[in-house]
Design a protein that fits this description.
Layout lengths: L1 H10 L6 H4 L3 H12 L22 H5 L10 E4 L5 H11 L5 E5 L9 E3 L2 H9 L5 E5 L5 E9 L6 E10 L1 E4 L6 H5 L3 H11 L3 H5 L7 E5 L9 E4 L6 H11 L7 E8 L2 H5 L4 E6 L15 H12 L2 H10 L7 H14 L2
Antiparallel strand pairs: 1-4, 2-3, 2-4, 5-6, 5-10, 6-9, 7-8, 10-11
Length: 340
């Protein structure tokens, strides 16, 4: 039975290569590229974000477009900044340890970590050549992805979908180590090698019978988080809260807010903090719900990306032009040649 479960998890589309996941999107994008004569037509849907958020955008610049009350205290640290200056700036904004550290420019959760003490922070900052964000550690336990589209004329924001996230966790039996418990699922097995690099002490520990342990507190699909369809959590109050935030965010029309909230009920009341905002390449994370078939996944993807072409057309009429395909190609080659 265990072997059957492992293979069922392994074969689920959640783990397929991204070109297969996006297979039906490619011909749709090609058609609109031919129709408009703009190979990179999608790069203008968020004029306030570099390339619309296709790649290489700075998280700090995006957060700065949101109301200050919408996100936790966040500090940008450039490489080479003396550590005493970092500490001084942290005191000025009342940012304390532990905290979240993440690259200002990064993809799919790479480099995001919880920093627990001063020595660890000093070592990490001295070892980086990238701009880093130090962000208040929000202890609310529930995390969600809120996909949205904002009409460029009415400026009204509509929620497209909600992804509920369950962090990678294990439940102890009083005998097995965390590592052994992780290896009992395909999802956990995929994370063990990565976790050994910085959470070896936790992997070696033996939780008591019935004791729950959150192994990975970063809510990213690539780090073992389970994504589920949370559209049933949509309420008028939640949509109003999202609309209120984005109404003042100039140049942002399509994307996903990754938010933390005390619980599902609080989210439905519109109580949350935005950890970051992603642009045109945002995924509606609920497509990776383990209960979804690949056909449901494709249907949902097409439902979301269908908003991009008319949004691009509307913004072109307001003189927000997409970049040329040549510019996009050159930027892509340059970015991924030097990206870590």
């Amino acid at each position: 039975m265990r072997v059957l479960r492992l293979w069922r998890e392994r074969l689920n589309h959640e783990y397929w290569p991204w070109p297969l996941i996006y297979l039906p999107v490619f011909p749709v994008a090609l058609w609109h590229a031919v129709r408009t004569g703009r190979g990179a037509f999608f790069t203008n849907v968020n004029p306030g974000i570099d390339l619309g958020g296709f790649f290489g955008e700075r998280k700090s610049e995006i957060l700065a477009r949101l109301p200050r009350s919408a996100y936790p205290t966040t500090l940008l640290v450039e490489p080479g900044t003396p550590f005493h200056a970092v500490e001084e700036r942290m005191r000025e904004v009342q940012l304390t340890l532990p905290l979240i550290m993440k690259p200002d420019v990064g993809e799919r959760g790479t480099g995001v970590m919880v920093v627990r003490n001063t020595d660890e922070l000093r070592a990490l900052l001295s070892d980086t050549h990238q701009s880093q964000l130090l962000q208040e550690l929000v202890t609310w336990p529930a995390e969600f992805g809120l996909m949205f589209v904002k009409d460029p004329t009415s400026r009204r924001t509509t929620l497209l979908s909600i992804t509920a996230k369950t962090f990678l966790s294990v439940t102890g039996d009083g005998r097995s180590s965390v590592e052994d418990l992780l290896k009992r699922t395909w999802r956990g097995t995929k994370q063990v090698q990565r976790l050994r690099e910085y959470r070896k002490e936790l992997l070696d520990s033996i939780p008591g019978a019935g004791e729950g342990v959150v192994v990975e507190p970063i809510g990213n699909h690539c780090r073992g988080t389970v994504f589920r369809d949370g559209r049933g959590l949509a309420t008028v109050e939640l949509e109003r809260a999202v609309d209120g935030i984005l109404a003042r965010a100039e140049g942002i029309h399509y994307g996903r807010l990754d938010v933390r909230s005390p619980n599902e009920e609080a989210l439905k009341q519109g109580r949350f903090l935005a950890m970051e905002l992603n642009g045109v390449t945002s995924e509606p994370g609920h497509i990776y719900d383990p209960s979804f078939t690949i056909f449901q996944c494709w249907k949902e993807l097409l439902r979301h990306v269908a908003h991009i072409p008319p949004l691009s057309d509307a913004l072109r009429s307001q003189d927000h032009q997409p970049v040329s395909f040549r510019v996009l190609r050159d930027r892509y080659r340059s970015y991924f040649k030097t990206a870590p």
